[in-house]
Specification:
Elements lengths: L1 H18 L4 H15 L3 H24 L3 E7 L4 H14 L6 E7 L2 H10 L7 E5 L3 H6 L8 H10 L2 H6 L1 E2 L2 E2 L2 E2 L7 E5 L9 H11 L2 E4 L8 H4 L6 E5 L5 E6 L4 H14 L4 E3 L9 E6 L4 H8 L3 E4 L3 E3 L5 E3 L3 E2 L2 E5 L5 H14 L2 H11 L6 H4 L2 H4 L2 H10 L3 E2 L5 H15 L9 H17 L3
Parallel strand pairs: 1-2, 1-3, 8-11, 8-12, 16-18
Antiparallel strand pairs: 3-17, 4-5, 6-17, 7-12, 7-13, 9-10, 14-15
Helix pairs in contact: 1-2, 1-3, 2-3, 11-19, 18-19
């Protein structure tokens, strides 16, 4: 009996192998012959073999229906090897896509958008980018909408900030990868006794002859003051990524309080303008992001500590929690002429941004996940830098889309403080005029 069963199994195996190569008839004939030699009912074997051959032929046809081609992926150099490994896992689990060759190239999130806009046709099919570039990419025709069958999963499985960052108008254009592109406080706990107030941090740094770093001539970091007091600086876009409206309230009493505090910080003898801990000297505290957590640990050693941004006391006597932007890495898919290739790209992008891969990416390179379940893993919750960022993100707004000229304008405002053009002795009228000019110019970018 064992020999008879073995003959049948071998016959089926032959069918699977040969039918996949287009030789189903040969396999069926060989299987019947083998069954006859083993004394098995050849009619029954022939029927089973025919059914298996038909199933294999159908499966082969389905594989071929996805077509063939090449898929190019751009990711940061730090995750090229990781992405290659995950692509291999995906292809092994999805043999129906075997007709595609996937190549992963090192192009960082900061460069990907510019490269795509310059040459959409020659750009990657799937690429990671920073969320502040999404409007430009949509306008340039470099982003396909997220596949309809994936929209609900993306929205329900990722945090609201990441989903908002991946959305233009009312359309979801990208797959969230991370929620880790914000800033918070790194500090030396042997110097800073209480990181909860800006005044206390500066007093401790001044007493120890140490420096406090923050980049106030940056449109990203200086919003920590203005958003803290309730000012607005946001832009609205249509589904094509065109700016349609600017909401700016810097020229206000709240804006004046924020501007005065930024000036006051600049005049502290402990203050240094900057946000890269690797370039900081004599540093006891710095406003920075998770990308510098390793450098911060190296610098502060056993005294390494992290916290949300501090509060500050405004000129009006009120306390304000420092705020700012939250940032995200997104994964985009380029529009394709070949609908079958687009289906494969969407499936691959959905996998590379899934809970499983986000958590694996955190474990390998430390990128903070946007996936809600991944965020609740023990490893992520034990990360002190990500924990501080998560606490800070509760007081920030997701960085939406901003005109390129905004960033240069904000740098100019900060530089005017750094140069001493605006100081604590400046009149309220002079400060308000600077804020009004800034506000009017921001609004003009959407007109």
């Amino acid at each position: 009996m064992k020999k008879k069963v073995l003959a049948v199994l071998l016959s089926a195996a032959m069918v699977l192998g040969l039918a996949a190569c287009g030789s189903a008839e040969q396999a069926a004939s060989a299987a019947v012959d083998a069954a006859e030699d083993a004394g098995v009912d050849t009619a029954q074997v022939a029927e089973v073999v025919e059914d298996v051959a038909d199933a294999v032929a159908d499966a082969t046809e389905e594989v071929e229906d996805f077509g063939t081609g090449e898929i190019k992926i751009w990711v940061a150099d730090a995750v090229v090897d990781f992405t290659n490994a995950k692509v291999a896992d995906f292809m092994a689990a999805n043999p129906q896509y075997a007709g595609y060759t996937v190549t992963v190239e090192p192009v960082g999130e900061g460069d990907a958008a510019g490269n795509m806009i310059t040459d959409v046709q020659g750009g990657a099919d799937i690429y990671a980018f920073a969320q502040d570039q999404i409007a430009r990419l949509v306008t340039a025709g470099a982003l396909e909408e997220v596949a309809p069958e994936n929209v609900d999963a993306v929205k329900s499985q990722n945090d609201a900030g990441a989903v908002g960052a991946a959305t233009v108008g009312s359309t979801l254009y990208a797959y969230p990868l991370t929620s880790d592109n914000g800033y918070f406080l790194y500090y030396d706990k042997s110097v800073v006794s209480d990181p909860s107030t800006l005044e206390g941090i500066l007093a401790d740094c001044e007493a120890a002859g140490k420096s406090f770093y923050m980049e106030i001539n940056s449109g990203w970091y200086q919003t920590a003051f203005f958003f803290a007091t309730g000012c607005d600086l946001t832009y609205e876009t249509d589904d094509q990524g065109n700016f349609t409206k600017a909401n700016v309230t810097y020229a206000s009493d709240n804006g004046l309080v924020a501007f005065k505090k930024m000036i006051e910080l600049n005049e502290s003898k402990a203050f240094q303008n900057g946000s890269a801990i690797g370039e900081a000297t004599n540093c006891a505290a710095i406003v920075d992001g998770t990308w510098d957590s390793g450098a911060a640990q190296d610098l502060f050693g056993d005294n390494y500590a992290c916290a949300k941004l501090p509060t500050f006391k405004g000129a009006d006597g009120k306390d304000y929690q420092m705020s700012g932007f939250g940032g995200f890495k997104l994964l985009g898919v380029k529009p394709q002429d070949d609908e079958l290739k687009l289906m494969v790209c969407d499936a691959l992008a959905a996998y590379l941004s899934s809970e499983e891969v986000q958590l694996a990416r955190y474990n390998e390179v430390g990128w903070g996940p946007s996936n809600l379940n991944a965020q609740q893993s023990d490893a992520v919750k034990a990360d002190v830098a990500l924990s501080a960022l998560a606490e800070q993100l509760a007081f920030t707004i997701p960085q939406g889309q901003y005109p390129g000229d905004y960033w240069a304008l904000a740098t100019s405002l900060g530089d005017s403080v750094r140069s001493g053009e605006y100081k604590s002795s400046s009149s309220d009228d002079d400060l308000m005029k600077a804020l009004q000019d800034f506000q009017d110019t921001c609004i003009s970018y959407a007109q």
